[in-house]
Amino acid sequence: MAVLRRDVAESDPTQQRDVEAVPQPPAVGHCVGVHAPHGDCPTDSAGLVQLHESIAALLASRGQWRQAYQHLRSALDLMYADKDEQPQVPEQLRREVDRLRKEHAEAREQSIRDSLTSSYNRRYLDQRLVSLVTEQASTRNGLAVALVDLDWFKQVNDNFGHLVGDRVLQRVVELLQDGLPEEAFCARFGGEEFVLVLPGIDASTAVAVAEAARARVQRHHWSKIVPGLQVTISIGLAYEPPRSGAPARPDVGAEQQLLTADSLLYTAKQSGRNAVAYRENGRVRLAGAASGRRAVAEPRAVGYY
């Protein structure tokens, strides 16, 4: 199974802070720290107003709204320097800034969502999980990661077609997200695998949340999509108790927790599927309706299955 990608945070421009040097609004008669048209600094108020507006438009297009607003205010102050009226942001310019802000937010949201299921995608999962592992030391909260796999999903595609398979994936995500605790989220890990990330939670509650999700999927009336359709899921639940200190490598900690969840998912599969496998006091157990089964030992090596 593919593991956590460490390069995502560096390669995703939507996650980086504004690191470019931002020109500061100058006083009247001083030049802004960018090149003016024709290489000359404007010295008159009209030229400075135009320069401020150009800088504001550039910053707004980058999503740097606070700096853009500062330059707009400087332009307005210059425009009304010799007037008694209170400067107001022109309506057309305000609408343009609002439009750019909305487009930026939509692009950001699309970049972290799975196009089929609208759950979070692998990029967001990798970044957020590393952040949560880092935050554990300061929050002193537990962190649970549940790796979810649809049982016999290949047979669903083979018997009913890929369009039905897509509808099944979409509905499973809706069922997984029902009743999730605050700050918990669902992300698509790949194919028919999903991850539930449960921050700020204790071990017993994490098991209960995972088992409730499994039961919702089993009880759902799948025959409404197509007669004869049945869907169940298996879950591997890895829980990390509160940390006493910050981890030296949060990315490694996040990766290891995913690997642990993957190993427990293998146990759930080998123990008959439609089950939640987790560790308690060093022993692997099955939750809920599967608790009467014997849990098959975890494999030494983790791989695809």
TrEMBL record:
Q: Which GO terms describe its cellular component?
A: plasma membrane
Matching SMART domains: GGDEF
Q: Where is the GGDEF domain positioned along the sequence?
A: 141-281
Q: Which InterPro entries match?
A: Diguanylate_Cyclase, GGDEF_dom, Nucleotide_cyclase, Rev_trsase/Diguanyl_cyclase
Biological processes, Gene Ontology terms: cell adhesion involved in single-species biofilm formation; negative regulation of bacterial-type flagellum-dependent cell motility
User: Single GO molecular-function term?
Assistant: diguanylate cyclase activity
Q: Which SUPFAM superfamilies match?
A: Nucleotide cyclase
Q: Which superkingdom is the protein from?
A: Bacteria
- UniProt signal peptide: none
- Gene3D superfamilies attached to this UniProt entry: 3.30.70.270
Q: Which PANTHER family match?
A: DIGUANYLATE CYCLASE DGCM-RELATED, REGULATORY COMPONENTS OF SENSORY TRANSDUCTION SYSTEM
Q: What is this protein called?
A: Diguanylate cyclase (GGDEF) domain-containing protein
Q: Which organism is it from?
A: Goodfellowiella coeruleoviolacea
